[in-house]
Amino acid sequence: MSTSPLKGIKVVDLTEVQSGPSCTQMLAWLGADVIKVERPGVGDATRKELQYDPKLPSYYFLQLNSDKKSITLDLKSPGGKEILTKLIKGADMFIENFHPGAADKLGFSWEAVHAINPKCIYGTIKGFPLSSRFKDLKAYEPIAQVTGAAATTTGWYEGPNNFPTQSGAALGDSNTGMHLLIGLLAALQLRNQTGEGTYVYQSMHNACLNLCRIKTRDQLTLDKIGYLTQYPQYPNGKFGDTVPRAGNIEGGGVLGWTYKCKNWETDDNDYVYVILQRGEKDFEKACKALGFEDWLTNPDFATADARDRHKQQVWARIQEFCITKSKYEVTEILGPAGVPCGPVITTKELMTDQSLYDGNTLVKINQGGGTGEFVTVGCPFTISGYTPTYGPCPELGGDTDKILRDLGYTDEQIAEFAKSGATTNSAEG
Ligand SMILES: CC(C)(COP(=O)(O)OP(=O)(O)OC[C@H]1O[C@@H](n2cnc3c(N)ncnc32)[C@H](O)[C@@H]1OP(=O)(O)O)[C@@H](O)C(=O)NCCC(=O)NCCS
Questions:
Q1: What is d(CA 28, CA 44) in angstroms, rounded to the nearest whole number?
Q2: Pairing status of strand 121-126 against strand 93-96
Q3: What is the C-alpha to C-alpha distance for residues 357 and 378, in angstroms, rounded to an integer?
Q4: Which residues contact 345 (CB under 8 A, 6 or more apart)?
Q5: Ligand 1 pocket: which of 16, 82, 99 to mutate (most atoms <8 Å of CB)?
Q6: 145 lines ligand 1 (CB under 6 A)
Q7: What is the DSSP string of 59-75?
Q8: What is the pLDDT of residues 38-74, one digit of tens each?
Q9: Domains, in order of start, for the chain
Q10: Best mutation site among 81, 98, 130 for ligand 1 pocket (most ligand atoms within 8 Å of CB)
Q11: pLDDT-based confidence at 2, cuts 50/70/90?
């Protein structure tokens, strides 16, 4: 029998959309008891966003709220405030991601929550750090990417498609949730030492910028010497005073690129990524596997620095090698020879790969009702001796009555709260 890492930890979850819920879902998967507080009759905005069927919860909501309970509370009503205060008294964590100032206006600032329960850790997500001139802005994913160095450094570097581009990865949303998770787990450990809860403030901006660390590395180098040897613009293109977009170069000093494979004209994703490492032995292996042994003695290619100066020729020749093969054939030839490479894999291919279900990379959750089973990405790390349960998502306010009873309210009081609009009955949402 395994023990949940966060067994007994109670979380009052006032988060919605993606950033906060991705964090609290992880807490739930690690065994915490997560109570999601939602607006009566409305709930988390994602419940009704991008639905494939207007009668059913969206996959957006389902993929971010597994294993939580839901209570509906109107936090602008006296009854809602009273119930939330009671919940906080028994909580280990209080987490919110409202627009800047909203939690304070509701009467549940860090100071207020700390006064109610000094042991309670307070987690908050906002768009920007408190020191930022943008600290009062509302924020969604693209705002984090355009302000946090991701968009300016992503995408094509020349021609008509040379404009700031967003990553498909949720650098501003789920990434922020994972950053907050780290802060909360550290705060829990701190509380073990001090007995007191602390304030964990995570901005989407800092989370995004943290993943763009190597772009700040490149800025430092650019400021010193005026060029970046690993970029496609080197040696013949022009560099300005800021890190340019880099197409598909590898982030480090090795020479990588995305190559077309034989069906690229009919299949948008028949591409493969191949990397030439800088070390002599590794380069030799690659030359043998590619059949390019002449490069070993050619001064234009024999050293890593020379290859950086002739990267257009390097790319063109490896392209010729790849174009006659599928992305999987290239991987089968170069991979075993010790050349770092990988096929470009689509969402369809990933989600039909049984091996990913075998290892719980992807998991199936039975939601029941009209939804039935749906697929989501499981807890991304494994802990020996512990496997999350991956339960269904709550109905809007589906646990209201039970939670109120657990707080000690009588049936009459529960009915009174519902009548006043402070809550709704579990069946009403
Ligand atoms: C996401 C965001 C842009 C949405 O902004 P929004 O549409 O104004 O929605 P919010 O949930 O923040 O707040 C709306 C209102 O509902 C109120 N509200 C929320 N839950 C409530 C409840 N249970 N009962 C009563 N009122 C409630 C808030 O107090 C707020 O009221 P106010 O406008 O009078 O201050 C904003 O919350 C934000 O910038 N959050 C921080 C960054 C973030 O996490 N972004 C999301 C990334 S996925």
A1: 17
A2: parallel
A3: 9
A4: 269
A5: 99
A6: no
A7: HHHHTT-TT-EEEE--T
A8: 999 999 999 999 999 999 999 999 999 999 999 999 9
A9: 10-210+353-420 (3.40.50.10540), 229-349 (3.30.1540.10)
A10: 98
A11: low
